[in-house]
Amino acid sequence: MSALVLPTLTAFTSSHLRAILTAKTRADFTTAFDALFARNLNVVYNGKQLSREQYQAQLLSQSSAAVAEQGANVTVQGQLEVPGDKGQISGLVGLFYTSLVDSKFLVLGAPAESKVVSSFNAIIQATEPQPPSNPKIHGYFDPRRIVTVNQIATDQALHVAIPAASVNSSSPGITENVALGPGPVRHPPGPSGGHQGPGPEKHPHPETIPGHGKSGAPHVVIRGEITGKD
After folding, report:
1. Phi-psi sector, 91: left (phi>0), alpha (psi -120 to 50), beta
2. Does residue 105 contact residue 112 with C-beta atoms inside 8 Å?
3. What is the reported pTM?
4. Pairing mode, if any, of strands 87-107 and 69-84?
5. What is the pLDDT of residues 58-107, one digit of tens each?
6. What element of type H or E holds 31?
7. What is the CA 125 to chain-centroid distance, rounded?
8. How deeply is 62 buried, as exposed, middle or buried, from its count of CB atoms within 10 A (0-12, 13-18, 19+)?
9. Helices 26-36, 52-61: inter-axial angle, 10-degree rounding
């Protein structure tokens, strides 16, 4: 029987890294993370030393399994490998990748998006022991894991541009050639010659309240206004 040929170091690293960042659930993310990184892991992220747990949380925040994210698209734009003395079982790998992450939150009806650009450099060794053979389990066993990673990454929120065609007179708050309606209403001159409406009411005779004061109250006289010449 011929010996099993393992995937190249770059294929091993890029495929597992893509599985980590595009995992939909926390369980899938953890499985993919453990399949790439050794239990004893040395991490330098953006110049800072991180524990394995801290680095796992950092990658989780950039993946589809994060609470606020719903999808990620990973593109490897450059890769380089230096195999060890025993071939593809160990060596050095360098990747340059971009990840576009869609948020669950909407901006103008579309998911908000962030862009992660990263340089990823790793040392790979065979750290996992061979498990007992099981005829019910098919596939190959890969003992390789990343033992050291030095990563530089930037996470940038992409700006949302409002299309010019979407801004028109039907949009709320947008007005164009608005008619203000007719001008002020002018009343015809009143009897007194002014323009404040009809003139004062005329009372040629004083008005009296019935009763002629017999109930005890004196006469109440309301004097009217008489206009004319003195």
Report:
1. left
2. yes
3. 0.63
4. antiparallel
5. 999 888 887 555 678 899 999 999 999 988 999 999 999 999 877 655 55
6. helix 26-36
7. 39
8. buried
9. 130
